[in-house]
Amino acid sequence: MTSFGSWAADVQYRALGAVRRISSIRLSANASERKKGAASPVTQMAGAIRHAATRNSRLDVADMVQVYHRGRVKLTEREERPIKPYGDGQEGDMKKDRRISAGTRVCAVIGNPVAHSLSPAVHNAAFEELGLDFVYVAFRVEDVASAVAGMRAFENFRGMSVTIPHKTEIMKYVDGIDEADRSIGSINTVVNEQGRLIGSGTDGPGALRALADAGVEVEGRSILVLGSGGAARAIAFTLARNARPGKLSILDVDESQLGRLTADLRNGTDARVESGKLSDGSLARAMGHADVILHCTPVGMHPNEDAALVPAALFRPGQVVFDIVYTPLETKLLADARSRGLKVIPGVEMFVHQAALQFERFTGVDAPVGVMRRVVMERLKS
Questions:
Q1: Of the four listed, 39, 234, 370, 379, which is most buried by Cβ atoms within 10 Å?
Q2: Which of 286, 292, 294, 236 is nearest to 265 (CA)?
Q3: Active site residues
Q4: Are 197 and 174 in contact (CB under 8 A)?
């Protein structure tokens, strides 16, 4: 029979080998601690793991962090604490020591492609900030029906964010959709309520929240929406139903798409709606009375960063310009508007607020919007 001491020694040996292979942890001792004969940080970590094992306790992430920052392990009273399952209500511990357990709830973004998605970084930072037993991943999906069936089958699959090109197709496979979202014709959020999948959209509400966060009053004012695609449709319906604008004007070059949106808004809301084909003349006339301009086309998006749909000469004092494009962080449209002294709202604000709304529907708690915004900005600036 192997003695406990031998087993602990084997733990040390295996831990030492494992730690040396973890390339993502770059251990470096402070110069003042690199004295001749001093044990290396890796050896100290392995010894600490053995120490914890022989005492039938644990070396937790906080101890590993001390190794990372100081080049050595300082065990504390935590090593005497019995191991507790994740999700037992110890939210303070969860924030310091997140781990996956049998009770961890899963959220994901599905789309094709999704490799560029910021959502995993944003949501996981928010989960960690609040100590929630959730994890968020990204799935490249081609077969939407099978993806939804999988969500339905997995009890712990709590929430799904939906991006291009699945926002419309997924509506066929969920169990319930709010009438407003059904009118919009697309959803970007699915929540698993004990096997019943509820679909909704957060793009429009995210834009409305971004306007409110910037202190922009929409009620009674003249709103100009440039574009009539999916994002423009979601925003226009949300404003028409929830913000009571004085007038909603929509311009686009796609007359067929524009006609459908105009008809749907007139049939489904009480808003005063005007629309027309986008041209130099129609744009100049609309800009003459618009209080808030919402740009919902790809013009100015990377790599065409020198383009702007609205000539700077058309801006008037007191206007607000909201561009939903967030790459680059400040488009030429926003830069031109800012140079004229106008209030501007960057597209990153809509992205952050729509993600925050998804987070709140997944978890049932208020989103840490500041944390989510910080992560988005760090990623976009890197």
A1: 234
A2: 236
A3: 167
A4: yes
| Nearby residues of 148 by Cβ (< 8 Å), 6 or more positions away | 170, 173, 174, 190, 197
pTM over 0.85: no
Rounded to whole angstroms, the Cα distance separating 258 from 233 reads 9
Residues 188, 203: Cα–Cα separation, whole Å: 8
Closest CA to 296 of 217, 368, 235: 235
Torsion of CA 142, 144, 145, 146, to 10 degrees: 60
Which tens digits make up the pLDDT trace of 216-243? 999 999 999 999 999 999 999 999 999 9
- In the block, tokens 């009620």 appear at 219
| Amino acid at the residue 62 | A
Name the one residue in this structure whose structure tokens are 């507790």: 84
Q: Residue 303: which residues within 8 A CB-CB, separation 6 or more?
A: none
Rounded CA separation 44/37 (Å) = 13
pLDDT of residue 382: 86
Amino acid in position 294: L
Rg for the chain, CA atoms, rounded:
26
